From TrEMBL:
Main location: membrane
Keywords on record: Cell membrane, G-protein coupled receptor, Glycoprotein, Membrane, Olfaction, Receptor, Sensory transduction, Transducer, Transmembrane, Transmembrane helix
Function: Putative odorant or sperm cell receptor.
Domain of life: Eukaryota
Keyword Cell membrane (UniProt): yes
A GO term for molecular function: G protein-coupled receptor activity
Topology in membrane: Multi-pass membrane protein
Membrane-traversing stretches: 29-53, 65-85, 105-124, 145-169, 201-229, 241-265, 277-295
Protein name as annotated: Olfactory receptor
Organism: Panthera tigris altaica (Siberian tiger)
Protein family membership: Belongs to the G-protein coupled receptor 1 family.
CDD domains: 7tmA_OR3A-like
Subcellular localization(s) per the UniProt record: Cell membrane
Domain G-protein coupled receptors family 1 profile residues, every copy: 44-293
Length: 315
């Protein structure tokens, strides 16, 4: 559908993304760096998926959620980085209106699922450590599938709401976006009409997609911490905390950058800083996740070695 279909109010048919830099000499270097980061991220997350698939030890609820997280990381970085790389080659990056809105929708869809999936992973750790006797029943395959379906449904509604609300805004010029991908805050700055409703929707969305999940994660880990501290042996406490440390690290990176990005809509001059935060959100976090989850996990490390060396898992 053409932008003008909404009552001929939108006259902008394309946006010009300024990208990471306007320095012509720096663009080839950035292209190589981020192409390497993209290949490394996709390869790392596919390796995690392969390890979970081939290793019987990893056929557990925790690694079921980790596999879904790896798929989301591949999706998130694919939505943003390949278009960004394409924009580093020509002197000017022109993105059609429909393509920009589509990128925004899929980014918020995948990032939203990420938010709630991290919450489901915290709930999984709570059940495993605090309710071990009923863990296998409460986290059976049907429950895991239902949790992932709920994450996807809530995120789809949130992403669709923001996309439709953005689509009815007037864009009558200028059309230069000071970012390397299409996102809500930089597009809001270009609107000719009031963004009051959009700001309210973004606040409500941030509450449901960020604040509530963060509260649930905090409550889950408060119970986990209390349960672990009751374990008498130091080795037992260390083992219990090690299964949670990787997840907490990912949560801090993901939510820290996310809150900083979307809770400061009033700052018009912050676009250049937003690019750095955007790199953390879209590139660094998905790239680090496979490393974080495999660094201190001997089961994942062993499975990855067997995948890379083509060996069969032990019977």
């Amino acid at each position: 559908m053409e932008p003008g279909a909404w009552g001929n109010r939108t006259t902008v048919t394309e946006f010009i993304l300024l990208g990471l830099t306007e320095n012509v000499r720096l663009k080839p270097i950035l292209f190589v760096v981020f192409l390497f980061a993209y290949v490394l991220t996709v390869g790392g997350n596919f390796s995690i998926l392969a390890a979970i698939f081939v290793e019987p030890k990893l056929h557990t609820p925790m690694y079921y959620f980790l596999g879904n997280l790896s798929l989301l990381d591949i999706g998130c970085i694919t939505v943003t980085v390949p278009p960004m790389l394409a924009c580093l080659l020509p002197p000017q990056c022109r993105v059609p209106y429909a393509a920009c809105v589509s990128q925004l929708f899929f980014f918020h869809l995948l990032a939203g699922v990420d938010c709630h999936l991290l919450t489901a992973m915290a709930y999984d750790r709570y059940l495993a450590i605090c309710q071990p006797l009923t863990y296998s029943t409460r986290m059976r395959r049907e429950v895991r599938g239902a949790l992932v379906a709920i994450c996807c449904t809530v995120s789809f509604i949130n992403a669709l709401t923001h996309t439709v609300a953005l689509s009815v805004l007037d864009f009558c010029g200028p059309n230069v976006v000071n970012h390397f991908y299409c996102d809500l805050p930089p597009l809001f700055r270009l609107s000719c009409s009031s963004i009051h409703l959009n700001g309210q929707l973004l606040f409500v969305g941030a509450t449901f997609m960020g604040v509530f999940p963060m509260i649930l994660i905090s409550v889950s880990y408060a119970h986990v911490t209390a349960a672990v501290l009751r374990i008498r042996s130091a080795e037992g406490r260390k083992k219990a905390f090690s299964t949670c440390g990787s997840h907490l690290t990912v949560v801090c990176i993901f939510y820290g950058t996310g809150f900083f990005s979307y809770m400061r809509l009033g700052s018009v001059s912050a676009s250049d800083k937003d690019k750095g935060i955007g790199i953390l959100n879209t590139i660094l976090s998905p790239m680090l996740n496979p490393l974080i989850y495999s660094l201190r996990n001997p089961d994942v490390q062993g499975a990855l070695k067997r995948v890379l060396m083509g060996k069969r898992p032990p019977e």
